[in-house]
Amino acid sequence: MKSFYFLCITQPTNLGDLVINKMLVDELCLYGKVYVDAYNTPERFRNVLTDNNSAIDLFKENGFSAKRFNLLRLYLLAKREKIHFFVSSPGPIEGGNTLYSIAVSIIRYVFKLAGAKNYCIGGCCSSMISSHKIIRKGIVDHYFMRSYASVNYINSKKNGLASYIPDLAYLLRMYITPSLSYRVKSSSKNRVLINFREFNDTTGRFFLWCQDIINAFSVAGHKVILYYQVESDFAFMNKLYQSTKSDSVEFREDIVWYGDLAIYEDAMCVISNRLHSILIGAGYGAIPLACVSEHKLTSKIQDVLESSLGEIGLSLSVPYFTSVDKIIAKVVGVDGLVLESKINDSAKLCREVIKNLVFNGD
Fold it and tell me: Taking the CA atoms of the chain, what radius of gyration do you get in angstroms?
């Protein structure tokens, strides 16, 4: 049995971040015990993350944390437990000259001194979203990135330092009962899930466009469910609901959390500019439609979809202000069985990459 150290440094009010963190912890638990350092995260986040018999809540059980810079105790733990490798949360990689980035590098170096490997699994970093990042070549042994744009960016700094792994949210397919909804034609399903993060648009055009999408599906006879899975999205989604509510438009006022994922079952599609709203929905059989712009917060979505789903992923990305008729046509025109196959392949590749890393290294 191997031992791993997982440092949770993420946004704990975001369901998408919880999902990808949990998927990584649960995958590592297949091969040994995982010391989960989730110090100073909310209980509802931490409880889900450590809900595995092979996951150990480090601070609860041992009373210290890397986040408190207990470096000697970290070193002794790594030596005593023969930590196989250290990994931090998926998502944007740490880097740059901020105190936070330097602190994480020091923590990584402590594990390196103790004989543990250092990896970044499921991260993203491209010249557009992270040109200020510093790739510290001597500390992280290998980067496994969720888009080819990120892989290419890191390899441009040091060739061979990065490889591809699909976004870890695809691993949900391994942990949930496979949905049959891909086998049902999208045109015969009625529920449409819509979730937007606010876009900084002083003209108000983005808000009006979101309204048009909601109204179009409502008029077409669909049940529209407005929801949010990041706490900061509540105000914008509530404002949208107040301006579009009708008998066929509902708003879920409570945040969608890990125990609420059944909301995605039997949905025709998910429309969002949140990456993990798209991917979680796809895992449950909904057609994922990503609304993207040139802004760094949404530009990465297209990179992730194209890397994992190929041409079908590219076709599921719609630029802001695309006509509503074209959006509906895209949803209806998707071959659900092809999409399901691509998603299953991405989930399998995630598992294969992590398993190979555990037993064979990078």
Answer: 21
Structure tokens at 321: 């202000």
Closest CA to 162 of 116, 126, 191: 126
Query: Letter for the amino acid at 27?
Result: E
Model pLDDT for residues 7-27, shown as the tens digit of each residue: 999 999 999 999 999 999 999
Rounded Cα distance, 20 and 279, in Å: 11
The mean pLDDT of 324-351, rounded to a whole number, is 90
Which fold would CATH assign to domain 2-165? Rossmann fold (3.40.50)
* Token pair belonging to 264: 């995605």
Record the tokens describing residue 362, joined without a space. 């990078």
Other CB atoms within a 10 A radius of the CB of residue 27 amount to: 22
Question: 20-76: per-residue pLDDT in tens?
Answer: 999 999 999 999 999 999 999 999 999 999 999 999 999 999 999 999 999 999 999
Q: Which residues contact 106 (CB under 8 A, 6 or more apart)?
A: 71
Protein fold of 175-345: Rossmann fold (3.40.50)
